[in-house]
């Protein structure tokens, strides 16, 4: 136990002392980044939307309310994946008119309302999802993220702790818990992240993000080791780089490098990986980083 506490303390000190950097002490140039081509809208999704349009336009009279609700929900999820958010919200709301107990539709609406800053609607939708399905796999995450962007860090912390406990081996759960806790107390958040890494780290690539945040590797080492390495067979470069860009942006925010953070978030948006959480919120993060950069320049 004593050894673990010492290790946690050392890992935490690396971040708190600001010793993270490339071997020559400078930041990694943005020019060294791998730039992924934007992900092209999946043709299969577009074809399925066309088929659903046909069924809903000409065959809906033969279907019961539950079936129509499911079809509208499916089309909404396809619109969401294609980045057509307004059309997605319309379909999710219509799906609930036909099938009011569709927890997944409420979950999607919670995400959508968070993206446009309508937090009360987001809480209402995500509360409904959890009331209908108390063990919903993502509603705690999404409600916690909504609270995070609404600066209600006590609520966000409770939800992300619950989400983390459901699967501590998932590195993203540790990362998001850290990003929320760091708004309250950096030292405690860092120690908590280090403990999670010691107890649950595996060969999942995203644990490299944890090592970056803890100072166990430099930004350059992270890019060389994880930007394009160990990609799954069903993973595209755009998907990997969407995550890499986003979490590098959050890393730069922690260092107070707001201009660079904004660039990373803009790069995350250019990947067009609309389904990824990191793409969904990169716009919010980019705007916030630009505001902070402007405020710093005026001081």
From TrEMBL:
Keyword Cell division attributed: no
Predominant localisation class: membrane
GO cellular component: plasma membrane
Positions annotated as TPR repeat: 103-136
NCBIfam families noted in UniProt: PRK11189.1
Subunit text: Homodimer.
Known function: May be involved in cell division.
Protein name: Lipoprotein NlpI
């Amino acid at each position: 136990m004593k050894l673990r506490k010492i290790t946690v303390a050392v890992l935490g000190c690396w971040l708190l002392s600001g010793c993270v950097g490339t071997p020559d002490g400078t930041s990694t140039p943005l020019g060294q980044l791998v730039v992924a081509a934007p992900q092209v809208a999946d043709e299969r999704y577009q074809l399925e939307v066309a088929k659903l349009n046909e069924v809903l336009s000409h065959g809906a009279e033969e279907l019961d309310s539950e079936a129509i609700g499911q079809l509208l929900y499916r089309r909404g999820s396809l619109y969401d994946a294609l980045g057509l958010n307004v059309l997605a919200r319309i379909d999710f709301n219509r799906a609930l008119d036909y099938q009011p107990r569709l927890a997944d539709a409420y979950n999607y609406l919670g995400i959508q309302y968070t993206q446009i800053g309508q937090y009360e609607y987001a809480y209402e939708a995500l509360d409904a999802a959890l009331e209908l399905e108390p063990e919903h796999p993502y509603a705690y995450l999404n409600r916690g993220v909504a609270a995070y962007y609404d600066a209600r860090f006590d609520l966000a912390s409770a939800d992300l702790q619950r989400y983390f406990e459901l699967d501590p081996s998932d590195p993203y759960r540790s990362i998001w818990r850290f990003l929320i806790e760091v708004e309250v107390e950096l030292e405690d958040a860092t120690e908590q992240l280090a403990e999670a890494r010691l107890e649950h780290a595996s060969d999942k690539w995203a644990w490299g993000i944890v090592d970056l945040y803890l100072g166990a590797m430099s930004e350059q080492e992270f890019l060389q080791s994880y930007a394009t390495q160990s990609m799954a067979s069903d993973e595209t470069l755009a998907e990997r780089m969407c995550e890499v860009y986003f979490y590098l942006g959050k890393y730069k925010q922690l260092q107070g490098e707001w201009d660079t953070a904004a660039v990373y978030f803009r790069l995350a948006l250019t990947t067009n990986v609309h389904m990824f959480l990191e793409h969904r919120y990169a716009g919010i993060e980019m705007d916030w980083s630009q505001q902070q950069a402007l405020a710093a320049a005026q001081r």
